[in-house]
């Protein structure tokens, strides 16, 4: 049986391009998954599930928008400079980017007004009016099932076009490597290694290069939590209420 080994491809124009496209594909995958779940939640009869629609749409919108906004990562090209948005989804793309730029990522939209609310009280029909309590209210936009479905279809279509570019980038990288000494890469090539780091040691000002300069990948972790509960069975399955005395 032939041996197999995965190593990080040496830096080249071809490997950098494939990595760039993979980053866009990861963001589109996040957007696709979030819109997929939101499309189910928005139709739910459960209020707690419907309340998840807004954060899901926000996550999807931010992830999608990352592909089409300027990045400070050297060499990261906006996706609309690489592929063309399918014509039948152009209007949905424009709407989603407006939603990202004015509402989700910023607070400029008329869809999210905030009001100061004062509760008034009058004991008698002609008595003096008193202000007894002050509060505040912010109105958030709601999303229709049709709009979410439209955005979901947009992301799937864009992702499909991108996957074609990724396949061509894979072929170009393999063609480039065919001219290299792959024996040396087999013997000395680096494999990705995950290194867990805590939040207090995370450098929030760090900025990644366009292609990894090290095979060490830092992963943010939280302290382990211990639950005093059985580990078997489906923890998310609905509970069955039995009559007293039932087995």
Could you characterize the architecture of this molecule?
The chain is of the alpha+beta class and 247 residues long. The protein is 41% helix and 12% strand. It is built from 6 helices and 4 strands, in the order ααααββααββ. Helix 1 (13-41) packs antiparallel against helix 3, helix 1 (13-41) packs antiparallel against helix 5 and helix 3 packs across helix 4.
Question: How are the SSEs placed, and which strands pair?
Answer:
Elements (H helix, E strand, L loop, with lengths): L12 H29 L5 H4 L2 H14 L23 H15 L9 E9 L6 E10 L6 H33 L4 H7 L4 E5 L18 E5 L27
Parallel strand pairs: 3-4
Antiparallel strand pairs: 1-2
Helix pairs in contact: 1-3, 1-5, 3-4
Structure characteristics:
247 residues, alpha+beta, two-stranded antiparallel sheet, two-stranded parallel ribbon, 6 helices, 4 strands, 41% helix, elongated
Helicity, as a percent range: 40-55%
**Global mean pLDDT:** 86
What oligomeric arrangement do these chains adopt? single chain
Task: Please count the helical segments.
Answer: 6
Order of helices and strands: HHHHEEHHEE
> How large is the radius of gyration?
26 Å
Q: Could you give the distance between the termini? A: 54 Å
Tell me about the biggest sheet? 2 strands, antiparallel
- Would you identify the regions where 5 or more consecutive residues have pLDDT less than 50? none
Shape: elongated
Count of DSSP strands: 4
* Order of strands across the main sheet: 1-2
Strand content: 5-15%
Structural class: alpha+beta
């Amino acid at each position: 049986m032939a041996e197999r080994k995965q190593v990080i491809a040496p830096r080249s124009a071809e490997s950098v391009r494939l990595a760039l496209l993979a980053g866009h594909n990861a963001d589109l995958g996040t957007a696709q998954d979030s819109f997929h779940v939101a499309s189910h939640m928005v139709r739910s009869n459960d209020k707690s599930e419907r309340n998840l629609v807004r954060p899901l749409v926000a996550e999807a919108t931010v992830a999608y928008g990352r592909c089409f906004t300027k990045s400070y990562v050297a060499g990261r090209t906006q996706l609309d400079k690489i592929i063309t948005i399918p014509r039948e989804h152009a209007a949905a793309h424009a709407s989603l980017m407006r939603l990202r730029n004015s509402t989700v990522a910023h607070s400029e939209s008329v869809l999210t007004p905030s009001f100061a609310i004062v509760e008034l009280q009058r004991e008698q029909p002609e008595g003096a009016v008193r202000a007894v309590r002050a509060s505040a209210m912010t109105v958030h936009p709601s999303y229709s099932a049709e709009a979410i479905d439209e955005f979901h279809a947009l992301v799937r279509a864009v992702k499909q076009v991108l996957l074609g570019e990724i396949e061509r980038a894979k072929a170009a990288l393999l063609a480039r490597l065919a001219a290299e000494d792959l024996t040396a890469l087999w013997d000395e090539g680096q494999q990705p290694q995950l290194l867990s780091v805590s939040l207090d040691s995370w450098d929030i000002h760090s900025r990644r290069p366009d292609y990894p300069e090290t095979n060490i990948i830092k992963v943010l972790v939280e302290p382990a939590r211990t639950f005093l509960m059985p580990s078997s069975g489906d923890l998310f399955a609905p509970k069955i209420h039995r009559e007293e005395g039932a087995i």
